[in-house]
């Protein structure tokens, strides 16, 4: 399974899953555009990890809620590497506001980043993929795209939208040799919480109760552990490879079986 | 929840589904809060029937994406006819739009009408229903919350979002005695134009892809809306009910019941 030489854009690659994906792609010889928005600290660390592996990467900054910034970013990648073969849509926000506390502005912000941003990143890379009649698009969604989890209503709404974005894009872009697949990770250990704006999804009182009621790990995760960014990255590598050429419009739950318990 | 009088808030009363729902709830002696783009002009027949039933209808024409306006309206209605018992979100707009070429305006309009208004109305009505520890919320969604159209992706993604709104709200509001459900409506007359696609042949011969070759009506929808708002469905919460006569299950064209 070789993906070496391909050109990838991974959004939100300065932290968590995005970082894990970018590093693993680079380790396998993919030329990776490492996207970040507000702070380049995480992205610089991703770059350092890639450099240490002897891989190739390019740091790119954009606010994915802004179409012009997306277009500027993608054309810079194309100029630097000669196109874009693989898009990993990953940059997303999870605010964890309770239903009654959500403001209209926060609703818009969530939709603009998590859903409009995913779509407009697709729009921006399609011309380059069309030119090569080849493309792989991967949407990082969540188990929340199908199952409610009581964390953040609007976050789940955006993931429910992504479920359909994946299906619509798959049937529309197939004619250009582009496949679109969705990954639905469950809990993934991303170390120190990277999404700086996220509130805890439990109140202090609920957290206390949660701790007192803590259960053995296998009661929640049949395989005895939570996910790691590398689990997600390995699936991305498969979806990016030629071996997955007949797969499109699929959504793969990657949660160690936790949603089945 | 035992209801003496329904107070039914319909988000798009001028639509065929809105009118059918009004007529169905008149039979239950309901009061109404009707959001009407025509300001009631398109509803003269229904409003006359409400009046004849001895109940009240408050007609408004507001932007359902503005929380403060929706809340003011619901609080005004609360004083006049009682707390809303039933929210029927049937607002929709289907804009032809492709992933490749759609513009941001189409995206924003579709999200606003199809999904954001559902969220804002749920927040506002949910707050009032919470006080009463009772209420039902029904989203009139579409099979396209699951099935891509190949012609209007902004509609599919918005209804996909509503699908998850319903499930999350069923948990959050369920703890306050409020039930939240989704109706995924299938084809009605004219949908072949609405979802005209160069990619998907779903709507070719659509009337025969319903196994019994009989399309559903707005009255079928109104009956289900009523059922989901009534005490006959107290254990139904967070469900997506497909109302399409089996259309989405169709597979073999040669087996269609086509004359």
UniProtKB/TrEMBL annotation, chain A:
An example molecular function term from Gene Ontology annotations: glucose 1-dehydrogenase [NAD(P)+] activity
EC numbers: 1.1.1.47
Keyword Oxidoreductase: yes
Keywords assigned: Oxidoreductase
Database matches in SUPFAM superfamilies: NAD(P)-binding Rossmann-fold domains
Any one of the GO BP annotations: bile acid metabolic process
InterPro entries: NAD(P)-bd_dom_sf (IPR036291), SDR_fam (IPR002347)
Recorded family membership: Belongs to the short-chain dehydrogenases/reductases (SDR) family.
Protein name: Glucose 1-dehydrogenase
Organism the protein comes from: Paenibacillus endophyticus
Lineage: Bacteria, Bacillati, Bacillota, Bacilli, Bacillales
């Amino acid at each position: 399974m070789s993906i070496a030489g391909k050109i990838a854009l991974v959004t939100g690659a300065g932290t968590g899953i995005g970082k894990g994906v970018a590093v693993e792609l680079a380790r396998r010889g993919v030329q990776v555009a490492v996207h970040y928005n507000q702070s380049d600290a995480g992205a610089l660390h991703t770059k350092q990890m890639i450099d240490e592996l002897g891989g190739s990467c390019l740091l790119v900054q954009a606010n994915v809620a802004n179409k012009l910034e997306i277009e500027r970013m993608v054309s810079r990648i194309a100029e630097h590497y000669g196109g874009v073969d693989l898009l990993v849509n990953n940059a997303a926000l999870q605010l964890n506001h309770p239903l009654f506390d959500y403001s209209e502005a926060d609703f818009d912000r969530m939709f603009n980043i998590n859903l409009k941003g995913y779509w407009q990143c697709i729009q921006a890379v399609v011309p380059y993929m069309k030119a090569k009649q080849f493309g792989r698009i991967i949407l990082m969604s969540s188990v929340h795209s199908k199952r409610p989890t009581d964390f953040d209503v609007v976050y789940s709404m955006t993931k429910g939208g992504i479920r359909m974005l994946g299906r619509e894009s798959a049937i529309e872009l197939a004619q250009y040799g582009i496949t679109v697949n969705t990954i639905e990770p469950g809990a993934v250990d991303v170390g120190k919480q990277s999404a700086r704006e996220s509130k805890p999804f439990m109140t202090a009182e609920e957290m206390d109760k949660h701790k007192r009621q803590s259960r053995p790990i296998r009661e929640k995760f049949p395989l005895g552990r939570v996910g790691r960014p590398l689990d997600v990255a390995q699936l991305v590598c498969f979806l990016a490879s030629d071996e997955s050429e007949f797969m499109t419009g699929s959504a793969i739950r990657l949660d160690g079986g936790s949603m089945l318990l | 929840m035992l209801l003496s009088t329904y107070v039914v808030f319909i988000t798009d009363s001028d639509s065929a589904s809105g009118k059918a729902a009004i007529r169905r709830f008149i039979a239950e002696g309901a009061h109404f809060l009707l959001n009407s783009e025509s300001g009631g002009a398109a509803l003269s027949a229904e409003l006359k029937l409400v009046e004849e039933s001895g109940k009240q209808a408050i007609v408004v024409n507001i932007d359902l994406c503005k929380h403060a306006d929706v809340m003011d309206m619901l609080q005004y209605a609360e004083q006049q006819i009682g707390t809303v018992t039933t929210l029927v979100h049937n607002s929709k707009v289907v804009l032809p739009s492709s992933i490749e070429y759609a513009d941001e305006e189409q995206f924003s309009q579709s999200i606003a009408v199809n999904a954001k208004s559902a969220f804002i109305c749920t927040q506002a009505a949910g707050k009032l229903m919470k006080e009463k520890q009772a209420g039902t919320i029904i989203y009139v969604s579409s099979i396209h919350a699951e099935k891509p159209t190949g012609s209007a992706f902004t509609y599919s993604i918005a209804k996909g979002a509503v699908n998850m709104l319903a499930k999350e709200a069923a948990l959050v509001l369920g703890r306050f005695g409020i039930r939240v459900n989704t109706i995924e409506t299938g084809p009605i007359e004219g949908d072949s134009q609405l979802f005209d696609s160069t990619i998907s042949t779903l709507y070719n011969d659509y009337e025969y892809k319903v196994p019994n070759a009989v399309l559903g009506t707005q009255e079928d929808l109104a009956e289900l809306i009523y059922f989901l708002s009534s005490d006959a469905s107290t254990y139904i919460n967070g469900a997506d009910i497909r109302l399409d006569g089996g259309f989405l299950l169709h597979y073999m064209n040669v087996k269609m019941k086509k004359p």
